[in-house]
Design brief:
Helix content: 25-40%
Low-confidence stretches: 4-10, 12-24, 53-68
Shape: globular
Number of strands: 7
Strand content: 15-25%
CATH class: Alpha Beta
Structural class: alpha/beta
Mean pLDDT: 80
Radius of gyration: 17 Å
CATH architecture: Alpha-Beta Complex
Oligomer: single chain
Length: 202
């Protein structure tokens, strides 16, 4: 079962019903990003609800406020009458079968294909997008596919450097993302948090 989520299912920490040892029903795509970056940080934020805003997170929120104005309409995947191309902003979609939910900053459509664009505060890595960002974008693609859309590529836009990078959802990235989701569920269901990363203050 899958479909467009309600506003109450927003891609936020507040969407979690509370601390339990069971796996959350719908995991936000950005929490998958946190898990790739640091499993312990994910656990503390998602399971223990421990989160403090910093200058970086507030600046990041400001970047998203500029794009999180719902404009345009995402047509049904089987609607042949849609005139291409189209854009839709701040699209909330979920997949119960995957147990995932995502607020997609921008969706660009052309013909029968859609392309998610994720806006990031900050700069890319030396060799392009960071791995957590690519996995988060792939989560969005998987949700779009579960909802019947064709999605082969997406983009990550870094606000600091004003650079936009294309990411192809090849089999390697898809399998990596699915493995991450499986590991996330195992960690989320555990009664204890993962150990800190080396040199981590958390």
């Amino acid at each position: 079962m899958h479909g467009q989520a309600s506003e109450d299912d927003g891609d936020t920490i507040e969407g979690h019903p509370g601390h339990t040892t069971a796996t959350p029903e719908l995991v936000p795509a950005r929490m998958v990003n946190e898990f790739v970056y640091c499993p312990r940080l994910f656990y503390l934020e998602w399971i223990h609800r421990e989160f403090e805003h910093s200058a970086d997170t507030l600046e990041g929120a400001a970047v998203h406020r500029r794009v999180d104005r719902e404009t345009g309409t995402l047509p049904p995947p089987d609607d042949a009458s849609v005139e291409a191309p189209f854009q839709a902003r701040s699209v909330l979609l979920s997949s119960v079968s995957l147990g995932l939910i995502a607020r997609i900053d921008l969706l660009e459509g052309d013909g029968d294909t859609v392309r998610p664009v994720d806006y990031k505060k900050g700069a890319p890595g030396k060799h392009g997008p960071w791995d957590p960002d690519k996995v988060q974008l792939c989560v969005q693609a998987l949700i779009l596919r579960e909802n019947g859309y064709r999605c082969d590529e997406g983009d990550i836009y870094y606000a600091t450097t004003k650079q936009r990078f294309s990411v192809r959802f090849d089999e390697a990235l898809v399998q990596k993302t699915l493995a991450v989701i499986q590991d996330l569920r195992r960690v989320a269901a555990d009664s204890t948090a993962p150990p800190p990363l080396v040199d981590s203050p958390n």
